[in-house]
């Protein structure tokens, strides 16, 4: 029996894609930057243009689910560098309505991911590294189109994120997976904290979703689909 297939838009290094694979999906990615470390087949190009092409050609029908992690940090080096052709970085917020309109046109269930407070998406689901016993907090919000899931409880954090804050050093069970210096995580620490082993590029790890998040999402989606199919039988 073939695996359901997910389209991983704005795939970056593949944190989301790996989680969906672990949940039982086959994965195809799309990113505007060259991603030699991405562990699945991917199309290099503008994600929205590629999605529009898949819709127009009917090729979108080979997918069961679409996941999108559009740029979220205005003016940051990674956002500007990997999405310059669309002018993202300063006005990236306007991407969300355009993306959502295309996703609605697919007729498929979808997921849009963003960090807390970064863009106008519905907060249908919020996940945190503590929910999965990870060494990062990395709070992320998800908009779910065409399906839903019950929000899991958010456990109390076990302590602080390690590093300097306002001239004072704090220790704690979590590392800061971005930047360098000031007690922030080394690349090996970032890899271990997020469960990502296939890339050692700091800029990719900085932007990555821990695969545990999309493993949980993918499993919840497939479980809900199984219940729906059983009810319809």
Could you walk me through the main structural features you see in this protein, from its secondary elements to its overall organization?
This protein is α/β, with parallel strands linked by helices and 233 residues long. The longest helix has 22 residues, at 211-232. It contains 7 helices and 9 strands. The model is unreliable at 75-91 (pLDDT under 50). The chain has a 7-stranded mixed sheet, sandwiched between helices. Strands 8-9 form a two-stranded antiparallel sheet. It has helices spanning 15-23, 47-57, 77-82, 95-106, 187-194, 202-207, 211-232, and strands spanning 5-9, 26-31, 42-44, 65-68, 110-115, 125-127, 140-145, 163-165, 168-170. The relative contact order is 0.17. Helices cover 32% and strands 17% of the residues. Helix 1 (15-23) packs parallel to helix 7 (211-232) and helix 2 (47-57) runs parallel beside helix 4 (95-106). It has one domain (5-149, 201-232): Rossmann fold.
């Amino acid at each position: 029996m073939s695996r359901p297939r997910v389209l991983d838009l704005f795939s970056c290094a593949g944190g989301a894609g790996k989680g969906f694979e672990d949940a039982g999906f086959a994965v195809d990615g799309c990113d505007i930057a060259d991603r030699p470390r991405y562990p699945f087949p991917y199309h290099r190009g503008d994600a929205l243009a590629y999605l529009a092409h898949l819709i127009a050609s009917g090729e979108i029908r080979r997918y069961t689910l679409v996941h999108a992690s559009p740029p979220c940090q205005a003016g940051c080096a990674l956002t500007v560098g990997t999405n310059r052709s669309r002018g993202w970085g300063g006005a990236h917020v306007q991407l969300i309505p355009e993306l959502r309109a295309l996703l609605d046109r697919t007729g498929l269930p979808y997921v849009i991911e963003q960090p807390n407070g970064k863009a106008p998406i519905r907060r249908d689901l919020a996940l945190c590294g503590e929910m999965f016993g990870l060494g990062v907090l990395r709070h992320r919000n998800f908009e779910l189109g065409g399906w839903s899931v019950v929000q899991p409880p958010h456990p109390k954090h076990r302590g602080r994120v390690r590093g300097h804050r306002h001239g004072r050093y704090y220790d704690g069970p979590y590392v800061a997976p971005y930047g360098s210096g000031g007690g922030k995580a080394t690349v090996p620490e970032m890899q271990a904290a997020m469960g990502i082993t296939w890339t050692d590029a700091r800029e990719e790890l900085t932007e990555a979703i821990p695969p545990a998040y999309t493993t949980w999402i993918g499993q919840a989606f497939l479980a809900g689909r199984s219940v729906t199919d059983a009810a319809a039988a």
